[in-house]
């Protein structure tokens, strides 16, 4: 099992990575369980933070918000028919999302929130959407035979995660700052920042990065540090 090699106290700073799906890829004719069932090996959102994207294998904690999926279209059960999956057996949008998060990230602390109101994309919101989107932001399986109107709203899924991605982001920032030429930053230090304080903050950044590393990543970072 993946575990962070260090942990924070309550007073320590916490860092999260931002992810989002804009719009959430919900086909017009699919229910929410149908849609999420197609994302069992990967998640339907992309990394927004300034870090090279990685395949999400685990996370330690997360908060996820889904908006724009109406109650009338999220259930696909038929009376007397066996549910196609545990997701299809859920009785509400909240249960569906929570079950999905527990399935994809077992053992992670997950909180989820569902809002029916979609995100408005009326002018001056830029119309850069695919012609496959309906006016409500749902995916069509083929291009419409008529000229579609502007997208007025979209469903959105967003997440804040504490995960190993943060180790890559923070350790990469540490390495970049470590290579900083102090002579080029003379005006920075002359403005009142002590060089010793800068080095101390740099080491704190390295320590913080280790809080989000798995055992393998922590060992890899130590090997890189030894080779510098």
Automatic annotation (TrEMBL):
PANTHER family hit by this protein: MITOCHONDRIAL DISTRIBUTION REGULATOR MISATO, PROTEIN MISATO HOMOLOG 1
Name this protein carries in UniProt: MSTO1 protein
InterPro entries, per the entry: DML1/Misato (IPR049942)
Gene that specifies this protein: Msto1
GO biological process: mitochondrion organization
UniProt superkingdom: Eukaryota
A Gene Ontology cellular-component term: mitochondrion
């Amino acid at each position: 099992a993946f575990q962070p090699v260090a942990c924070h106290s309550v007073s320590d700073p916490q860092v999260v990575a931002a992810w989002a799906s804009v719009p959430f890829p919900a086909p017009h004719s699919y229910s929410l369980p149908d849609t999420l069932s197609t994302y069992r090996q990967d998640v339907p959102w992309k990394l927004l933070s300034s870090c090279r994207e990685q395949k999400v294998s685990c996370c330690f904690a997360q908060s996820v918000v889904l908006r724009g999926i109406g109650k009338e279209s999220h259930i696909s059960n038929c009376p007397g028919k066996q549910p196609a999956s545990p997701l299809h057996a859920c009785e509400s949008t909240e249960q569906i999302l929570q079950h999905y998060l527990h399935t994809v990230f077992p053992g992670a602390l997950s909180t989820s929130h569902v809002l029916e109101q979609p995100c408005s994309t009326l002018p001056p919101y830029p119309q850069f959407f695919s012609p496959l989107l309906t006016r409500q932001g749902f995916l069509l399986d083929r291009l419409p035979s008529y000229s579609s109107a502007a997208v007025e709203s979209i469903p959105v899924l967003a997440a804040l995660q504490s995960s190993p991605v943060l180790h890559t982001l923070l350790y990469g920032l540490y390495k970049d700052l470590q290579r900083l030429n102090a002579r080029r930053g003379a005006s920075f230090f002359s403005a009142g920042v002590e060089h010793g304080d800068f080095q101390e903050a740099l080491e704190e950044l390295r320590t913080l990065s280790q809080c989000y590393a798995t055992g393998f990543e922590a060992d890899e970072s130590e090997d890189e540090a030894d080779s510098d």
